[in-house]
Design a protein that fits this description.
Length: 293
């Protein structure tokens, strides 16, 4: 029950996050003006707005006439050569999208877009870290799966991704399964986070072993280092999206396998043969200190 509540909270937070990440929509201001929050507004040439206009967290492209005051808070003003504002023009603060990761990328400058992208990766990494703190046992199990069965994890991830939509359609057609559709979405999202945390921890641990072979990193330190590396790879043009797709697919499969006993998909001789021991022999423990949260 406790884990289900945590899962629901994570899903709600993710839904709010990605709904706020959506690009700001452009809207033509009405004749009487008004207040616009989180939107890019435009006044086309040869059009007149009779009233005050306030834009909060958005861009204002003014090519026509505003018969009133123009106030922009946390946004950017673009005035055309024929733009006319009869009242006061006030621009308070820089664009919010440059600093707040959950605001839309409203600025057209390259630096602002890059800052927004970095903040988005930082926010996502914090969510992955939160998933690790909430589900440390599952993350450790997923880490074991992806470390010893990377190919199987990738295959299960692809199958899971393919099966998501048919299952959703079946639940929708059955009518009584409608309440399970949000549960399915939340479960997939939580599995991706758990798998991402496991992969990042594995990458961070390997880097620690290369740089400091005599040092055993803590799980948190390995996870943070791995998140930095994965995020840096995700920002690279063209290659970044491919890397992230691979991370999410493999992580999704590893997270699903974390809920299944290894003997169920490897057979009674699988783990023993992989470890080079007798049947039923325990697997060697994962390196590193005990995981405490």
């Amino acid at each position: 029950m406790k884990n289900s509540r945590i899962l629901i909270l994570l899903g709600i937070f993710a839904a709010v996050l990605f709904s706020m990440i959506a690009p700001a929509s452009a809207k033509t201001i009405g004749e009487s003006g008004g207040t616009y929050i989180g939107q890019n507004v435009t006044v086309p040439e040869n059009e007149e707005v009779k009233g005050d206009v306030t834009v909060i967290g958005g861009e204002a492209d003014i090519d026509g006439k505003i018969d009133g005051d123009l106030t922009i808070v946390g946004g950017t003003l673009h005035k055309g050569p024929n733009a006319v504002v009869t009242g006061d023009v006030t621009n308070v603060g820089p664009s919010l999208g440059e600093f707040v990761p959950f605001m839309p990328a409203i600025s057209s400058s390259r630096m602002a877009r890059e800052n927004h992208e970095l903040m988005m990766w930082l926010a996502y990494s914090v969510i992955v870290l939160l998933a690790f703190l909430l589900f440390p046992v599952r993350v450790r199990a997923a880490l074991d799966r992806v470390e010893h069965h990377p190919g199987l994890s990738a295959g299960v991830g692809v199958l899971a991704l393919v099966a998501v939509f048919p299952i959703m359609i079946l639940l929708f057609v059955s009518f009584i399964g409608w309440p399970l559709i949000p549960v399915e979405i939340l479960a997939v999202f939580a599995a991706v986070l758990i798998g991402h945390a496991a992969l990042s921890m594995l990458i961070g641990r390997r880097l620690y072993e290369l740089v400091l072979p005599r040092t055993t990193p803590s799980p948190i330190a390995a996870l943070i280092l791995g998140l930095i590396v994965v995020s840096a790879a995700g920002i690279v043009p063209v290659l970044g999206p491919l890397v992230m797709c691979l991370v999410w697919l493999v992580g999704l499969g590893a997270a699903i396998l974390a809920f299944v006993r290894e003997t169920h998909f490897m057979g009674p001789m699988g783990p023993a043969a992989a470890a080079g021991g007798a049947p039923g022999a325990p697997r060697p423990p994962i390196g590193g200190p005990p995981m405490h949260v």
